[in-house]
Amino acid sequence: MQEETCYHDTYCSHYRLRPDRSGLTIVFARAGLNVRIWDADPAVIAAAPAALHAACKEVGQDPLVLSHVTVAADMATALDGAEWVQESGPERLNIKRQIYADLDRLAAPETILASSSSAIVASQFGADLPGRGRILVAHPVNPPHVIPVVELCPSPDTALVVMDRPRP
């Protein structure tokens, strides 16, 4: 969901749809971005459309904005063509390290990899990865579909160009 210019042909991927993070998908879609969502848990994916629709209605957002959202069959499909990945997985370092190893391996080299983490800094889960220069924490204020503000926290390895890229 980030790129040189983030408009209609831009894809972002929202990985690991914790229930308290579904608002980010709405924020991305409301910005006109095409969003692919995926989670390792099929039950989370099955519940996602209804949860997103309910979140839209709760704040008076037209659910038609969700026409920009599609469900990906697997992580590789979710990442295909994505310019920004927003990971919202569990706040456990061992899990984040595995997630970022997979993201770093599967995502295109220019794809920015952002974590919604509120407790783990990017250097802890990205330091040993070849693509560590594209990893940062992008922690939203909650609920993000009501307060669309995100705190960007680079690691010492995050490339300056990553921080300078435009955002929706």
Tell me about this structure:
The chain has helices at 22-30, 42-58, 75-79, 93-106, 122-126, 160-164; strands at residues 11-15, 34-38, 69-71, 82-87, 112-115, 135-140, 150-154. The protein has 168 residues and is an alpha/beta fold. The termini are close together.
Q: Give the neighbour order of strands across the main sheet.
A: 3-2-1-4-5-6-7
The gyration radius over C-alpha positions equals: 14 Å
Sheet with the most strands, sense and barrel status = 7 strands, mixed
Label the overall shape. globular
Low-confidence stretches: 1-9
Order of helices and strands: EHEHEHEHEHEEH
What fraction strand? 15-25%
Distance between the termini: 8 Å
Structural class: alpha/beta
Number of DSSP E strands: 7
* Mean pLDDT score: 86
- Estimate the helix proportion, in percent: 25-40%
Which quaternary structure do these chains form? single chain
Count every helix, treating DSSP H or I runs of 4 or more residues as helices: 6
How are the elements arranged and paired?
Elements: E1 11-15, H1 22-30, E2 34-38, H2 42-58, E3 69-71, H3 75-79, E4 82-87, H4 93-106, E5 112-115, H5 122-126, E6 135-140, E7 150-154, H6 160-164
Parallel strand pairs: 1-2, 1-4, 2-3, 4-5, 5-6
Antiparallel strand pairs: 6-7
Helix pairs in contact: 1-2
Summarize the structure.
By secondary structure, the chain is α/β, with parallel strands linked by helices.
Task: Give the key terms.
168 residues, alpha/beta, 7-stranded mixed beta sheet, 6 helices, 7 strands, disordered N terminus
